[in-house]
Amino acid sequence: MQILDHNLNFPHPSTAPDHGLLAIGGDLSVERLLLAYQSGIFPWYSDGDPICWWSPDPRMIFDLSRDRPMRVTKSLKQSLRNRGYTVKENTSFTEVMQHCANVKRKDEDSTWINNDFINSYSKLHELGHAKSVEVFKDNQLVGGLYGIDLPNKKIFCGESMFTLATDASKIALLHLVNTLKIKGYHFIDAQLYNDHLHSLGAVEIDREIFLTYL
Predict the structure, then answer these.
(1) Peptide bond into 11 cis (omega under 30)
(2) How many other β-carbons are positioned within 10 Å of the β-carbon of residue 183?
(3) 107 has pLDDT over 70
(4) Is the dihedral of CA 153, 55, 104, 82 positive or negative?
(5) pLDDT of amino acid 108
(6) What does UniProt give as the signal peptide span (predicted)?
(7) E strands of the chain, at which residues?
(8) Count of alpha carbons within 13 Å of 19, Cβ hemisphere only?
(9) Could you write out the three-class secondary structure of 119-170?
(10) Rounded to the nearest 5°, which phi and psi values hold at 138?
(11) What is the percentage of the chain residues whose pLDDT exceeds 90?
(12) What sign does the dihedral 11-26-31-57 (CA atoms) show?
């Protein structure tokens, strides 16, 4: 594990152990964040701790080469038809991040989406590198997601999502899946395994395979 300084570099992600912790330190500058995502690395740490950089093995993805990259249940189809949701893109990026920061997560007492995160990713959004999908009900934001777009790699790096209404985050994800599939993207990076992502259709691939796409 490397301790980062002001120099803009990372060790190769293949040198990280399976759990993925590759390096500590550095900053959340636009330049470092872009280098990280383009290298298959992402930041994740608790507020108040040093910045930690990860590249786990295996990697969780939504494989857009599959006929059905995401599992669409009967109840989700009903929500699409009957709940009166409207889906938009890139209209409320910072607000989406703020909602994601407030999500209560199992076995986590705090969030990694602190003010430094929000400020840095908002800058990425202003430059066109970070994007969001929003779901509205009666003109109120009720769900969404955000992440880093790598159009030259045909990869979208999903960061977080939230919901305040039934199936709203799933509808945001489905919109993203369908949009990226049409554009010929390879996959959505979902980073680490969890049961919820698995239930939505995400699968694990070896880090070595993941890195070949980058």
Answers:
(1) no
(2) 11
(3) no
(4) positive
(5) 53
(6) none
(7) 2-4, 21-25, 42-43, 52-54, 59-63, 86-89, 130-137, 140-150, 155-163, 187-191, 203-205
(8) 5
(9) HHHHHHHHCCCEEEEEEEECCEEEEEEEEEEECCCCEEEEEEEEECCCCHHH
(10) 55, 45
(11) 93
(12) positive
38 neighbors 214 (Cβ within 8 angstroms) = yes
Q: Which amino acid would we find at residue 214?
A: L
Catalogue all structural domains in the chain, each as residue range(s) with its CATH number: 2-54 (3.30.70.3550), 59-212 (3.40.630.70)
What SS3 state is found at 84?
A: coil
Sign of the C-alpha dihedral computed for residues 72, 159, 14 and 33 taken in this order: positive
Q: How far apart are CA 159 and CA 122, in angstroms?
A: 13
For residue range 56-71, what is the model confidence (pLDDT) as tens digits?
Answer: 999 999 999 999 999 9
Check if the beta carbon of residue 19 is closer than 8 Å to that of residue 86. Answer: no
In the three-class reduction of DSSP (H, G, I as helix; E, B as strand; rest coil), residue 173 is classed as: helix
Residues in the chain: 214
Q: In what order do the strands lie in the sheet with 155-163?
A: 86-89, 130-137, 140-150, 155-163, 187-191, 59-63, 203-205
Tokens 């890139």 found at:
90
Question: Under a CB-based contact definition with an 8 Å cutoff, are residues 158 and 189 in contact?
Answer: yes
- Backbone φ and ψ of 22, nearest 5°: -105, -40
Instruction: Name the residue among 88, 90, 94 with its Cα closest to residue 168.
Output: 88
Does the model's pTM come out above 0.85? yes
